[in-house]
Design a protein that fits this description.
Helix content: 40-55%
Low-confidence stretches: 170-175
Distance between the termini: 21 Å
Mean pLDDT: 86
Structural class: alpha/beta
Number of helices: 6
Strand order of the largest sheet: 4-3-2-5-6-1-7
Number of strands: 7
Order of helices and strands: EHEEEHEHHEHEH
Radius of gyration: 16 Å
Strand content: 15-25%
Length: 175
């Protein structure tokens, strides 16, 4: 099973890292699927806006709701997230070399979100990388039966892992 995850300690660091990785892999000519998150800080009214870019070329969808500065509820727009899931699933059906999912989050931990997209990619022997936080690590470990590889939170480690798995794929395709 070709699945790896990465975690960063700083707020939004994993999102920035996966966005940079997607840009690099696209630049190498790999066909990407999945989503990466783009956070936009606000000068007013609470935490950042969260958008996801459906790989490789969009669209970009807002997955956060503006609930107000003092709100403590979940800001995720589950409907927008499910739209991005459907678009990622459609991209997978067109054929991709690798899948990047910005986060195995609460939706996935609860059995929704990108779980089926990830499983379908793995069934097709497509390398998968996900962002993860400590809150959902137990659910992720259960989902992957502990077979996922943890990668250091730096671009070199992520790029090397993907290139190692993608080069093996290309050699099999050529044979």
């Amino acid at each position: 099973m070709k699945i790896a995850y990465t975690m960063s300690t700083g707020r939004g660091d994993t999102d920035e890292l996966l966005l940079e990785l997607a840009d690099r892999l696209t630049g190498y000519g790999w066909r990407l699927g999945g989503i990466v998150q783009i956070n936009t800080e606000r000068d007013y009214d609470g935490p950042c806006d969260m958008d996801v870019k459906v790989l490789p070329e969009g669209p970009i969808l807002r997955i956060s709701q503006n609930l107000g500065q003092n709100s403590r509820g979940c800001r995720l727009d589950a409907s927008a997230l499910e739209t991005s899931v459907g678009l990622a699933e459609a991209g997978l059906a067109k054929g991709i070399d690798c899948l990047i999912i910005n986060k195995f989050g609460k939706q996935e931990a609860d059995g929704r979100g990108f779980r089926d997209v990830i499983a379908n990619a793995l069934a097709d022997d497509i390398p998968v990388l996900v962002g993860l936080n400590h809150l959902n690590q137990d659910a992720f470990d259960t989902y992957t039966a502990g077979l996922a590889v943890q990668l250091d939170g730096n671009i070199s480690a992520l790029e090397s892992w993907f290139i190692e798995h993608l080069n093996g794929q290309c050699q099999r395709k050529r044979a």
